[in-house]
Amino acid sequence: MKNTYFTPGPAELYPTFYQHLQQAMDEQIGSISHRSKQFQNIYRFADEQLRTLLNIPDTHGIFFTGSASEVWERVLLNCVEYESFHLVNGSFSQKFYEYAGALHKHAHILEKPFGEGFDAADIEVPAYAELVCLTHNETSSGVQMRPTEMHKLKRKYPKKLFCVDIVSSAPYPDLDFSLIDSAFFSVQKAFGMPAGLGVWIANETCLVKAEHLQKNDSLSIGAHNTLPMLWKHYKTFETPATPNVLYIYLLGKIAEDFNRIGIDTIRKQTEEKARMLYKFLENSADYEPFVKQERYRSQTVIVAKTGLSDRIKSSDDAIAAAKKANMIIGSGYGKFKDSQLRIANFPAVSIEQVGALIEQLQK
Amino acid sequence: MKNTYFTPGPAELYPTFYQHLQQAMDEQIGSISHRSKQFQNIYRFADEQLRTLLNIPDTHGIFFTGSASEVWERVLLNCVEYESFHLVNGSFSQKFYEYAGALHKHAHILEKPFGEGFDAADIEVPAYAELVCLTHNETSSGVQMRPTEMHKLKRKYPKKLFCVDIVSSAPYPDLDFSLIDSAFFSVQKAFGMPAGLGVWIANETCLVKAEHLQKNDSLSIGAHNTLPMLWKHYKTFETPATPNVLYIYLLGKIAEDFNRIGIDTIRKQTEEKARMLYKFLENSADYEPFVKQERYRSQTVIVAKTGLSDRIKSSDDAIAAAKKANMIIGSGYGKFKDSQLRIANFPAVSIEQVGALIEQLQK
Fold first, then answer.
1. I want to staple A169 with a disulfide (CB 3.0 to 4.6 A). Which of A137, A198, A276, B33 is the partner?
2. Cβ separation of A196 and B5 shorter than 8 Å?
3. B114 and B226 in a common domain
4. pLDDT, tens digit, for every residue of A32-58?
5. How many angstroms away from the CA of A155 is the closest CA of chain B?
6. CB-side neighbour CA atoms (13 Å) of A2
7. Both A318 and A223 in a single domain?
8. Is the pTM of this model over 0.80?
9. Are the CB atoms for B186 and B249 separated by under 8 Å?
10. Beta strand pairing status for A137-138 and A143-144?
11. In this structure, are residues B83 and B89 in contact, taking their beta carbons and an 8 Å threshold?
């Protein structure tokens, strides 16, 4: 019997994934040239579908990398001369910050404990920070930062570049790309695909900055997947090097499926399933939501505390209980591995499947 | 009717690819955690199979990146403090060289015209070059550098690090990894997979160098996929970020298939098919081999000149003739697009298929 993956990525594949994969194999997409008209059409299609889904204006390009983690590096190399600023409240926002250090940028940090979130009012952006690095959904702790707070912050600091990690939430967050300069995600989360493709959205202001930095002899914006090189090829829907053609094809198809359902419906379904999960955790004797304040609670990665009862002493007990019914849930991240659970709430799992998981955890 | 792709990558998928993909879907490999025991076993298996196939000793680790082009950047960042040295005789070795410039390394170049090759006797490695960058198979021009020449050169300069681009030839070249410090390839060429995974082989000497450079405050070895970080995770068959789990699984399976056939047989079959193609080109009134000297002729990407007869005035005529029989061959690269053909000779195409292509081109 097949498992249902409620893990926060890699995750359950989107139900239509298999038919799109079969179609791709029938069309021999794995063999076509990335310099062919056929590939340009695949890129254009994915671009159009993502643009519609995420409401991305013409000011922004959409580029492909090997992973979202690669984009941490690319955006720092291409958009920061000296200083970046990072909101850190978990392991992934921490890694984004550490990448800046590894690239010898002067990285400012505003830190909150694991499980706590940020509002615009909390934040003072350092005067010389060029790039503000935000994480919409901290996959490690299940904390979200609301887009309205991000937009408020950008309005306060309109001259700063804003980059948002939407790795484990896109297409859920309703970002206003007239304010957000760059964002990025990977396909193995809410898009329900296998891992191996990063998507980087960046606007012309980022490009201008990268072109400016490229002229500076005392620093390098890197050699591979630089923004000027990606953008140059993007104009004809090409990529500088051979990309993951098959996954770009599949991403376009799944984004099209999402558009057929409609982004509003997908967002409402996400919120409905999140409500079911949080309600269950709040009323359970075995679990409780790790994130206390409702406005910080992630809608796509729900984190639960275990160890409240003798029945469920650790995350292992809950994982084993779910596994009996072929449901795979994630452990906590890092030092919370044994004490927390992470339950992904992506479009690939239905309201019925979430209901079945809750029932199983109640047993 | 399905096409047979004789293109130099993306290329024809290896015949067993489809069954491995089906198996992977049945096992839900697209959903498993990259922090699971199951993934560690997949990485270990791919590592073992590649190690056997390419005769890689324990001194070398095997790592995964988004593409082979990414490795150009990674090896330069991690193994060069000031100076690299590049043999350039086509567009891809040129790009490797240009990456060094973009990273502000002092890049030395020894250049030969498109279509010509290198022998050890031609080459004097500059005194301060730290990394010697060789290209086994120049995909753009169909020129190979024989491994024996590479080994001879390394013996002359034993203190230099040697890195070999085997992108469009692996597993064909019989590299002696007691001499070659690093090599890399991508899976969409001779391994008959879709594009989206790079493989980087590097030894402990490269690691020591990277660790040394990492301590230097005046330069950065990058933040993503650095060699020390890749190696640290490699010890437990993990990766720093979420990798392309599915493709690593498939690569292991195809490498296993190659090992069942035996690398000697694969090399002999490659040479036999190359012989057939070159013989045809030499005896044809319509074509001739672009690479004049036999020892420089690539065994995996055969480049032909067109325009010798009224029948085949340009590469387009030949491509159209082959297309009629559902055979896809590649055009020349860059400025040779219209005047040359590139015919890939990878394990995915059989002696019979190469025979059928020759017959079709003769018609």
1. A137
2. no
3. yes
4. 999 999 999 999 999 999 999 999 999
5. 30
6. 15
7. no
8. yes
9. no
10. antiparallel
11. no
